[in-house]
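Table S2 (text version). Query chain:
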Amino acid sequence: MVYDIVIIGGGPAGLTAGIYARRAMLNTLLIEKVGVGGQIIITDLIENYPGFLEISGGELARKFEEHALKFGLETKGMIDVTCIEDRGKTKLVRTTEGDFETKAVIIATGTTPRKLGARGELNYIGRGVSYCATCDGFFFRDKVVAVVGGGDSAITEAIYLTKMAKKVYIIHRRDRLRAEKINQEHAIANPKISFIWDSVIEEIAGNKTVEKVIIRNVKTNELSEMKTDGVFIYVGLIPNTGFTDVEKDIGGFIIVNNKMETSIRGIFAAGDCRVTPLRQIATAVGDGAIASVSAERYIDGL
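Corresponding structure-token output:
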């Protein structure tokens, strides 16, 4: 079988692309490495997606999936894509579960949280070091935790952690936050949250689990020790694009034009894995729609 479109990634961008492709009656396959829904599954609360004043990430992901399945989108989960071979009018998507031939590919693989790089970090993953408050916050009920970062992910997850933890410290290397103003206001007003400015974590230490962090002030180079039961890290994103040879920027994000076309004809990219000024659910949905329509027009021209 030769598919019309193979979509790689099952987050908002990929599912939207699937909805548009199936509505156009294109034979479409969506491949997802983990589970359909993408990163929004681990988001506790979403307040900025139009049409929903408040909704959990898991619930919104289920609505996206239900919508796509309604139109008959074929999905395959727990499959890892290893490479895409360009064969001119067709592409071969090679995976750990076999190969899939297709006329067009839409890459919507999103990102992975960046590691902090502090001493001890890797030793304590799952034993006090986490990159997902929604996943692991429950284990820190009535405990003290540190959140590293100053963007929206760090601040919203810190606010979420106050539901369980007795104290949350936000450690940020600058003297101001990068998060949306409304999120900053919520965090600053929360009595459980305190800020440690101009600082980075040099080391994460403990015995069987995390017990403390060594903090360095970036302006004075002074070291200090802080007791904590957990460290939640939000210091950036790495695009999941290592399997493809399309043109990327220095950070590995895929370069596209306004039609979501990559440097290889017939391969498109959408969502957080591409070069974009904003990584939000709303922008990912828009990307997915554009990529799917562009792929349809490309196929019509073959």
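Notes on Table S2: The first strand starts at residue 2 and ends at 8. The chain has two domains: 2-112+237-300, 115-233.
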